[in-house]
Amino acid sequence: QVQLVESGGGLVQTGGSLRLSCAASGLTFSDYTMGWFRQAPGKEREFVARSWWGGGRTLYADSVKGRFSISRDNAKNTVYLQMNSVKPEDTAVYFCAAALRSRTFNNWGQGTQVTVSI
Questions:
Q1: pLDDT at position 102
Q2: Distance CA 40, CA 89 (A)
Q3: Which residues does the chain have with pLDDT short of 50?
């Protein structure tokens, strides 16, 4: 079955940078659209970024556009989220997700905590 394991979370100061990684197994990685979502305390899970299968095309939430960058290494079955110029409102548990081709995300990792201090 598909397994997604996030890493790279932690505590970072406002304005700093962090890179999250998500290692995938049990799938043909290049056939999957990969995404990042986040959930802050007391809030619903929200979309952050996605990288379409086939390579190249990406999409970002307005709240992170210009600050975050999603990338993937199909040879390593890994997707990354580079977070720059972080803000306290970026504090959340970040989840990696996978969807076969362009279907709905139905595979999720366990999440990694990102905390941005003032």
A1: 80
A2: 8
A3: none
